[in-house]
Amino acid sequence: MDNTARGTIEMTAAMAILGTIGWFVVMSGQPIMDVVFWRCAFGAVTLLVICAALGLLRGRLTLRIVAIAALGGAAIVINWLLLFSAFSRASISIATAVYNTQPFMLVGFGALFFAERLTLTKLTWLGIAFAGMLLIVQATPDTGDVGTDYFTGIAMALGAAFFWAVAAIVTKKLKGTPPHLIALIQVCVGVVMLVPFANLSQLPADAWSWAMLATLGVVHTGLMYILMYGAIQKLPTHLQGSLSFIYPVVAILVDVVAFGHRLHPAQIIGAAAILIAAAGMNLGWTLWKSKPPVESPQAVK
């Protein structure tokens, strides 16, 4: 099996795992603050073992790497808190679709802080995603079909996308640092950030809740990072981008099958618009054919 095939399998598995995260969050039955704390705790143990086995803990850490990774870690933890909170308010499907506005957050940061040019194609994709957002926001959810605080859930999903983009921008400063090590620092920061707020005096009393929390840390954090970063090293960028959309598709299917959430037609169109626009942005799709250069009469023979 060649590297591309192996990377495709790894990326597909990673995105499929990520797509099920909402089910585990909801089924754990724990407060979101506790869910994120235990995800970080179990994830830290898993990634520590992995980094030690790969020899990544010897002579690689500097104060600069730790400081930058910690800043990104703070953004990632806030991202998880907002996204997980959005699941019970706007449903896993809607929260995941709105969360996939991440590429546009990155484009905005690029224009504001790195003087990157906003092309007409990028602005068009942004407009399509914004139109999809309006369709989702204006659709009235069925009572009992989704959480009662629908609009707050959408705002939380948007906030989660914003902090994901912040973490992505910060992590760009760590080029050359093993990604497993960055992830380890980030989840360790999460443990430190959340330990004052986690309800450690009343731990889950049943094995089911512990199994859900452990799976979020070991599988959705440790294993998922290994698969995803392994795939990134093997795959071209366009293939990485296309396979990343397995995540929202699986999340929406899980929401429909496991929880019976049905989206209104306007919500379906809005979610599709966001995902298509995000795909277009990630994969560099163009909406117009560029005009061929006009040859001068002297050039024609």
Describe this structure in words.
Helices cover 73% and strands 0% of the residues. It is an all-alpha fold and 301 residues long.
SSE arrangement:
Blueprint: H1 3-19, H2 21-28, H3 32-53, H4 63-90, H5 92-99, H6 102-113, H7 120-138, H8 150-171, H9 179-194, H10 207-234, H11 237-243, H12 246-259, H13 265-283
Write a concise synopsis of the structure shown.
The protein has 13 helices and no strands.
Q: Tell me roughly what share of residues is in helical segments.
A: over 70%
SS element count, helices: 13
- Helix and strand content put the structural class at mainly alpha
> How many strand elements?
0
Termini separation comes to 50 Å
Keywords:
301 residues, mainly alpha, 13 helices, 73% helix
